[in-house]
Amino acid sequence: MTEIRFETREIGSLAKPVWRVKSFAGRPLEDGDIAEAGRWGEKLGVDGHEDLVELLGKGNFGDGELAAIDDWSSLYGLRFLEESGLDVVYDGEQRRTEMYDHVSRHAKGFEQRGTVRSFNNKYYSKAAVVDQPSIDGPYDVDEYSFIAERTDKRVKIPFTGPYTMVDWSYDEHYHRTGALGATAEQRADARRRFLLDVAEHVIRPNAAAVVEAGCDWIQIDEPALTTRSDEVKFGVEAFNKSVEGIPSQRRSLHVCFSDYSLLYPHVLELDDCFELQLEFAQRDSRETGTSREERPGYEPLDHFKEHGGPDVGLGVLDIHSDFIETPELVRDRVIYAAELLGPERVHVNPDCGLRTRSWDVAFEKLRNMVEGTRLAEEALNRAHAGAR
Amino acid sequence: MQAYVPGIYPRSEALVQSTRDLDRGRTTPEANDEQVERDLHELISVQQAAEVDLLADGMLRWQDLFRPLVEASAGLEPGPMTRFLDTNTFWFAPRQTGGAPKLEPVGERYIASLPGSRLVTLPSPWAFALSTELTPKEIAEGVLKPQIDALDAELVVLSEPFLAREERPDLGTLAEALEVLTGGPELAIQFTFGDAKNVLEAGAGDLPVQAVGIDFYSTHASDIPDGFGRKLLAGVIDARSSALEDPEEIAGFVAQLPVDDIALVPNGDLQFVPEQIARQKIQRLGAAKTAQAKEAVA
Hints:
Chain A has 388 residues and is an alpha/beta fold. Chain A has helices at 18-25, 31-44, 49-58, 63-83, 99-106, 141-148, 162-167, 184-212, 232-243, 301-307, 327-341, 359-387; strands at 88-89, 108-119, 122-134, 154-155, 157-160, 170-171, 217-221, 250-255, 275-278, 311-315, 346-349.
């Protein structure tokens, strides 16, 4: 038996450094903000970070300076994930405003409609589709190329999925007339046409161009995929349409904060999907242990054992909490999944993007994730060696 | 034909910014309160211009349909963050912490006084009880009845987002709870954002309320039974769509409904569209009422 080795990676977003946020918002930087750029530059070993500190100290940024800050932010995100020890890296979506907004502002056929409350005093911008969506040209190639030129590690690029784009948008085009009193079939047909158009004319050409530029792993993010149980099949169809004909070595699907039982049997129809990256840790106990009772958050893995299908990108970090998972806790979560599914079907990541955590918290979590994964490998390899 | 705007109304961009600033310590609670008052004043003006028949306060301080009542009730607390139906929004499901809940009625901070006859929106007892171990009747007795008794309103609209989605809706427990709430203002139960076919077949028209609300963006008009015995709150404005309705189309649609006593309403809380769209929808609600009246005369 070959030695067990789990691949570690992030899922997508990291918080944006305050020096970046304030610079783009046109707000003055304080000394502490600039010191943060220096501190993280040193900690991450970012070559030439003194130049960034000097730039930030000047203030009054024009387009040229903002473009440079954009690059620095991407480089810091990349080094952050490299220094965390991950096997697969990215830049933490430093250049993207937000996963929905990033796409709706680049695609034709969408118009911004305003702000809607998500909960409490949290809001999100929402756009409406007003014409068949399309793009003039790919919009994530430069992001990928910048990263690829600056790392020796494997790079994975995330793309907001078509179902999430449709579910989070208003429809003023596909179901514009006759909506009052329409049948369920008419409503479903309008949603499906919208969905397939986004997949074919927005997501696919952009992802194809990123792969053409050299990226060998595309991740489709679909946090909304199980929002309507009767539409999961449409989401799977749209995933297949999004990646159709793209010669990437790997394609994967990220879903989170959902009822995963709704994914089956539909996900068995995903075309050549390497894995489903899913959130589990926020549902789990924080105590160590590898028994079923000690890992209640990982109960949905039973569906994967029962039905088979893609591998699992195992979420082992709760991205909504500053609680720092210990390496031992990560170890036990990985061991539980590996023993249930077989180690060859398990890979390791946070539940979702870490954008709501500070860099200090996110860094410690990721370092422990990598260390815990190594502990799991040691334990499993030792056990298998003993069994031989 | 009447028109109302029950439910939670969206915050203006100014109030959105104010609440964001409040969370980040960039403004004071007093300054935020002043912005809430400006939003309320504006909402009243929009409703008056649209000539709605009962004013509503838009529940501008309510974080979700349940929160102020949960926080004002002994024996209840906000529970886990939960996705609201099939939207990208969330609410905190009520959770029981002790024995029977007991509400200290919320005052004008949450149910504003208005310059004219008004309606007040509260959660349906069935929806309220759903995430707790309590029965709808216990919620009605311990939470909703004390609040309704403390109100001065022409109509209380009980918002029910969940029951219509049940395959076999249990209207018996809902009816039992609604009986507790009778004797004061007129009551309406509004089945928001969902196909009401199942609850209509189960006898929603016989519930002990004066009015029943139906979402006609999810429910087919033919599902309203002949002889429907209650006032119909016809959800003809789609609160989940940014598309603006055609008043003439609404008037034509309503004319085919087999009910005489109708009030036009949104099919749920307008908070699911940005405020500048919501105000246009209210204008069109009023225009639809006028168009329907003309059609009836013709």
